[in-house]
Amino acid sequence: MAVSAYDLSGQLDWQYELYKELHRTPEISMEEYKTSERIAEELTKLGVEPVKVGKTGLVGIVKNGEGKVYLARADFDGLPVKEGTGLPYASENEGIMHACGHDMHVTGLLGATRWLLDNKDAWAGTFIALFQPGEETAAGARDMVAGGLKDKIPAPDFCYAQHIMPTPAGKVYISEGAKLSAGDSVKVTIHGQGAHGSMPNLSIDPVVIAASIVVRLQSVVARVVAPTEFSVVTVGAVHTGTKSNIIPDKAEILLNMRHYNDEVRKDVIEAVTRIIKAECEAGGCRQEPDIEFYDQFPLTNNKKEAVDQLVPKFQEVFGDDFLPEPPAPASEDFSIIPAQFGADYVYAFIGSMDPEVVKKAAETGDRSLVPANHSPFFAPVIEPTTTTATSAHITAALAILGK
Question: Where does the Peptidase M20 dimerisation domain lie (predicted)?
Fold first, then answer.
């Protein structure tokens, strides 16, 4: 990577320490009060007034003459994961970890904000640094919108976000098309009728109904979705019963769906809902099942015209380390923010793992060498990840605002 494109030498030590501090003190989604305060403190030190939006969200607005309005976003919530990395800066908050790299997202965006403030002769317009809570539960972007985001910032012409991934550090990935899937989680409650295990004829058995639903759902992708389309339907949990000789009166199923196409998503949701209701009716339930959707993520889709605005600058700065990104089945709520303004956006991936370790994992087939996001062992290498994450933010901003 052409690191010399930006002189970060005067700020990297600050970024390293900030990253370690954030990693030590993670907070779960929508409870990130101290993290929000810490980000506000850093913005204030930089001379940028932090503006609170929603429960814990923040924006910092930097105006530098006439020009376009550009928004860059970093999320900052942790996960309910017990850290297992053994790092000297491992989480000090029991059972909570930055297992998805959001601490690095904050570090990169704050670093880019500092560089842009120090180099105002390189750009013109308005730069908005947006720090979003609650990405992991799809609550944060909606909370900032509900908290009056549209009234608190100038309408952006272009929005950008990035996420570190378990790929070689120093690499940056951008391309057009669906990048992150739409995601829907569903809680299903089946209302049966309890009875003694020796008297099943007096029951409406929710265990049998739940089992039928689970089996039947396995046919949805195979028989509803065209072979050329992507779809995942996963039953992650079934909860029911307490004792071998008691037929319970309720059963709960938790399932998750992922899609790259909103029309396919609609068809699958209809099929899943139809199967759940039909199996409950077939089982004799006197009450319809409760079907509750939650943690719903929109599709993240990089449009060609938006990608084309960034690619030349990224090619110039990163050279052979700038690569097309494959789609990932994970999900994001970032696109909710540009959608509020009708703005173009691009979502990028940033490599974060030791390239030699990634290479060895590929050669040996040992996947444990490169823990994925959400693993208790997820541990980005601080360098060159910090430099890459910061430089990518700067590059995207200059592609839109640069003189």
Answer: 185-281
Backbone phi, then psi, for 146, in 5-degree steps? -65, -25
Could you count the other beta carbons within 10 Å of the beta carbon of residue 273?
15
Q: What is the pLDDT of residues 192-212, one digit of tens each?
A: 999 999 999 999 999 999 999
- The 3-state DSSP class for residue 277 equals helix
Closest among 351, 378, 385, 366 to 87, alpha carbons compared: 378
On the question of pLDDT at 281 being above 50, the answer is yes
d(CA 111, CA 361): 31
Q: Alpha helix locations (H) across 238-303?
A: 262-282
The H-or-E segment that residue 361 falls in is helix 355-364
Q: How far does the chain reach from its first CA to its final CA, in angstroms?
A: 22
Distance CA 98, CA 106 (A): 12
pLDDT bucket at 358, cuts 50 / 70 / 90: very high
Estimate to the nearest angstrom the gap between the alpha carbon of 341 and the chain centroid: 20
d(CA 360, CA 1): 21
Task: Reply yes or no on whether the pLDDT at 117 is more than 50.
Answer: yes
**Rounded Cα distance, 210 and 223, in Å:** 20
Residue at 103: amino acid letter: D
Q: How much is the pLDDT for 206?
A: 98
Instruction: Give the integer Cα–Cα distance in Å for 72 and 158.
Output: 9
Q: Kindly report, residue by residue over 19-47, the tens digit of the pLDDT.
A: 999 999 999 999 999 999 999 999 999 99
Neighbours of 26 (CB within 10 A): 27
| pLDDT for the residue 221 | 98
Find where tokens 């951008």 sit. 174
The residues facing 239 across adjacent strands are 252
SS3 243: coil
Q: Hey, CA dihedral for 113, 177, 230, 339, is it positive or negative?
A: positive
pLDDT at 102 over 70: yes
Which residues, 6 or more positions from 220, have their beta carbon under 8 angstroms from its beta carbon? Answer: 231, 233, 268, 271, 272, 275
